[in-house]
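TICKET: design request
STATUS: open
ATTACHED STRUCTURE:
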């Protein structure tokens, strides 16, 4: 049974991805940092459906802590599917943005990518089969007012994705990014009215976490073995 690690898997899109990968037959390691109880709830839901899952708790910004926990996980065998989903946003126009707002958002996305992906690579490459999928955003593709930090972090993931894809393409490991648009969630409901979504999204609705998870599921499958180095948008036609 292949093993998958989903960072930021404790809620929302991450939980939906974890549950979908478990339905696909993978053993899923659900990562959390601040909300381990939510990761436990996701694992419980997976197990209730007959799937296989466990939790892991560490701060992706902490290199030493990340490496220590990943080395522990690797004692159980290679992780062949990695979904870099951990991310935060702290929105404000750049003119009023504090340094800590910039660094926190960029660090979680980019340091988190390195701190989790790099320690997993050699064992994944050794199997000559792997899938690395990083969650981006429409903001990283077209930008968004008040999200210079978030857009910069996600655009950085695009460069990392394309470069790493070239480095390891010959070893049977694909590397892609998924860039969702407006996805239905309690936070989205607070940020966007129905009228705003109607104006912004050609499909006139928000997407669902399950739709995003379906795309990740495909990219993690054998069927997607010739897709690598791509940033794939899922946004109802916004761009």
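STATUS: resolved
RESOLUTION: sequence designed for all positions
ATTACHED SEQUENCE:
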């Amino acid at each position: 049974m292949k093993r998958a690690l989903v960072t930021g898997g404790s809620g929302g899109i991450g939980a939906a991805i974890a549950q979908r990968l478990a339905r696909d037959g993978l053993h899923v390691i659900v990562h959390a940092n601040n909300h381990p109880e939510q990761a436990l709830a996701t694992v419980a839901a997976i197990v209730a459906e007959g799937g296989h899952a466990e939790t892991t708790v560490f701060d992706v910004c902490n290199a030493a802590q990340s490496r220590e926990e990943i080395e522990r996980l690797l004692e159980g065998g290679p992780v062949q599917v990695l979904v870099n989903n951990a991310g935060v946003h702290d929105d404000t126009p750049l003119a009023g943005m504090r340094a800590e707002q910039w660094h926190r958002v960029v660090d979680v996305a980019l340091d988190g990518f390195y701190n989790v992906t790099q320690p997993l690579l050699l064992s994944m490459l050794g199997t000559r089969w792997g899938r690395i999928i990083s969650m981006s955003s429409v903001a990283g593709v077209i930008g968004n007012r008040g999200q210079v930090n978030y857009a910069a972090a996600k655009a950085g993931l695009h460069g990392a994705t394309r470069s790493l894809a070239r480095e390891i393409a010959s070893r049977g490991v694909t590397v892609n990014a998924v860039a969702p648009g407006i996805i239905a969630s309690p936070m989205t409901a607070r940020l966007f009215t129905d009228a705003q979504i109607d104006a912004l999204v050609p499909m006139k609705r928000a997407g669902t976490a399950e739709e995003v998870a379906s795309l990740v599921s495909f990219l993690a499958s054998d069927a997607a073995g010739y897709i690598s180095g791509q940033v794939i948008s899922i946004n109802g036609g916004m761009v």
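CLOSING REMARK: The CA atoms of residues 158 and 231 lie 7 Å apart. The chain has a mean pLDDT of 96.
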